Structures are given as C-alpha cells and as structure tokens.
Amino acid sequence: MLLSPGRYLAILLFSFSASLFASDKQYTVTSADGVELAVQESGSPQGKPIIFIHGLLGSHLNWEKQRQDPALQRFRLISFDMRGHGLSAKPTQAEAYREGSRWAEDVAAVIDASDAKKPLLVGWSLGGAVISHYLAQFGDKSLSGALYVDAVVELTPEQIPAHPQVYQAMTSADLATHLDGEREFLRLCFYQQPDEVTFARLQANAAMASWEMQRAVPSMKVALEQGLGKATIPVRFIYGRHDQLVDPQASLARARSVNPHVSTVWFDHSGHAPFLEEPARFNQQLADFADSLH
C-alpha cells in the first residue's frame, strides 16, 4: 500500500523521535539479599559507563543536571535508587541498612545486571561510603575509577559536623517534626540554595526515604582501610568549600592517610552538593576524569 507524503513524514518523524530516546530505560535488579533496586539508564549505550550513587534521602533525581547535560550524552549514564530510597524497596529490618556489605552488594548487582564494563563509580555523600564498601568487598578490578563527591569517609564526630537538633528531628516518630528535620537537613546541603521547584522535588525525595534506614545508617562502620586503602585505580575527591554536613579537611586528611594517591578538586562556590550548585563545572570535571581512565 502506498503511503501519502504526509503519512510517510509522520512515520519518519516518529521513528526519529523514538531513536532519540532509545537509550533511556528503567528496570529493576535484585540484590544478594533480595532487595529490589530501581535502575535508570540514559546517554549512549556504547559509551563509557558511569554509575551514579546518590546520598542520604536522595534518589536518581539528584543527578538530573548530569543526566540531561548534552555534553555527557556520549557516556552511558547509569543511576539507581539505593535501598530505602526512591523507587527501590525499603526493608524494615535495621540490619538491611547497618551492614555496609549489603550496600556494596547493591552496587555489584547493578554492575552485573547492566553488564557495565569497567564503570566509573560516582558517589555523593553516603554514596562515597558505599563506594568504599564495594572496594572492600569486591576490589577494584572491575572498575576504571572512583569519584567521591563531598563524601562520607567515615561516620565519626571528627568528620561529621554536629547538628543534633536536625538529626534528632529526622528520626522523630512525630510526622511534622520528622518532615521539618528533613527540610532543615536539605537546607544544610547547599551553599547556593536551589530554586523552589528543585527544592520541593528534593524534599519529596526525602519524604519517600525509609525511616528505619535513617535510624540505622549512623551506626554503620565504613570499611575505609579495606576499601579505599587498597584501591589501585584512580580516585578523585571533590569537595565544596562550604560543606556543612561533612568536614572536608578532616575527611580528606583521613582519606589520604589510607590512600595518599587520591587527587582533589575544590569547588569554591558550593556546599555539600557541587553537582547541583555548580553543575557546568562539575560536569566538565566529570567528563575530564572519565576520559582520563582506561
């Protein structure tokens, strides 16, 4: 059957539009202990894989300024919602969050299910601790590099500034107190506060996070020496100079004490979230680091 010129053009445009989004997909993977994790992919399926690991109270939405940057579309951009967050499952047992090995197994499950070859791991805040747990449990032979972003190196008073009222409110059984605490926690993430729409989305992100997870995570012991301390791949730390949730100097000093080869980049106009506060510079740093890896 012959198609009219208009019908042919419509089909052609539809096919072209579909091809633009062919690399965008969402799926779930199951971790070693049965927890289902929501995974998202965008960018070039043939590009170097970058796996993004968000922080406490976040989700894959934290990385929207990276996933939507045209300059990063040549990479295979993989994100996932960590256990207890976003669209992933939320176990009710504290052990599911207190044991760092389980978070490491989540990363391994994403790497295996996505068949990502030599990915670069990018971990923000708590995501940095997760990278260390992965390195401790699985080593670095399957990775090309690791980028720690305002990372939790260890959960110690020397490295984590005290905000007792905020953290107490976040774990309160009273809903209003709990939500107010999470809002204040999010405010502390930024030196340059985000626009109203972005902040509202981040606050909704936080409200979806498991309460059991928030209560359990502070007692996690990070396998720093076994993980970061034994890494042979290139490792870079990015810190915002105005971080109020992690002490950058103390954290970096501790990281260098176990691995003196880590490199560092400072963001002078950022707090705890330079990938949102200075996204253009962060994305260029990310691309340059990824390109330097083998």
Shape: globular
Unreliable stretches: 1-23
Mean pLDDT across all amino acids: 93
Helix content: 40-55%
Number of strands: 8
Beta-strand portion reads 15-25%
Run of helices and strands: HEEEHEHHEHEHHHHEHEHH
How many DSSP H or I helices? 12
**Spatial extent as radius of gyration:** 20 Å
Termini Cα gap: 52 Å
| Sequence of strands across the biggest β-sheet | 1-2-4-3-5-6-7-8
Q: How would you sum up the major sheet?
A: 8 strands, mixed
| Class from secondary-structure proportions | alpha/beta
Any chance you could write out the topology, listing elements then pairs?
Blueprint lengths: L4 H16 L4 E6 L5 E8 L5 E5 L10 H4 L8 E5 L14 H4 L1 H15 L5 E5 L1 H13 L6 E5 L14 H7 L4 H14 L7 H13 L2 H6 L18 E6 L7 H11 L4 E5 L6 H4 L1 H13 L3
Parallel strand pairs: 3-4, 3-5, 5-6, 6-7, 7-8
Antiparallel strand pairs: 1-2, 2-4
Protein architecture, described:
- One of its GO terms (molecular function) is hydrolase activity.
- Keywords: Hydrolase, Signal.
- This protein is of the alpha/beta class and 294 residues long.
- It is built from 12 helices and 8 strands.
- It has an 8-stranded mixed β-sheet.
- Strand 1 (25-30) and strand 2 (36-43) form a beta hairpin.
- Helix 4 (100-114) crosses helix 5 (126-138), helix 6 (164-170) crosses helix 7 (175-188) and helix 7 crosses helix 8.
- The longest helix has 16 residues, at 5-20.
- The radius of gyration is 20 Å and the shape is globular.
- The termini are far apart.
- The relative contact order is 0.15.
